[in-house]
Amino acid sequence: MDKIVILTGAGLSAESGLGTFRDEGGLWAQHRIEDVATPEGFARDPALVHGFYNARRQQAAGAEPNDAHRALARLQRDHPGTVILVTQNVDGLHEKAGSEVIHMHGALDRALCAACGLRWDAAAEMTPRTRCPGCEAKAARPDVVWFGEMPYHMEQIVDHLADCALFAAIGTSGQVYPAAGFVQEASAAGAETVELNLNATDMSRAFDSHHIGPASRIVPAWVESLLP
Q: How many CA atoms within 13 Å lie on the side-chain side of 171?
């Protein structure tokens, strides 16, 4: 098997204590997506948005990878073919587990200047007064892709989907494009497709096979089946 492309979503990190959009009582449940995850929301109330991402950054910094993260790092390290790991997650847990990752939605520990486009390592606490270290504008924002913005590295990801032998989606609802369309792109290129998730999703019918259950259980078992 020459190349495996894996897409991971928030469900992979849920067992590390990091909530998904749909968790009750978590950070996302306390705010409307329109207020904290759109450019318009940031323009209206940058202090609110910075406070939200400061809390997420602190939460992610204290989290540890679970068995699913570690299994994917092992797959990337030990599989004889190429394993490309693409994540919608911004929490950095893949890197803590030892993986190399393509971050299509950015990263919590990075900052972006809305004025000049410079990127740098984010401080634990950012505010509307945080200056860009390049142009010195008070225009710092989290380097996270919000709704209505184009995900990062799309050309690179599409190229990988076009020549992979296996595509796997892990812990993602399959409801947000363009990531929701990755399974069709891989399938059209002749790849086998597999979904690993806690529950069936709206996109489940598009996959050739499925593994249903907690990521910390089903991902290590799946990885074991792929290794020599």
A: 27
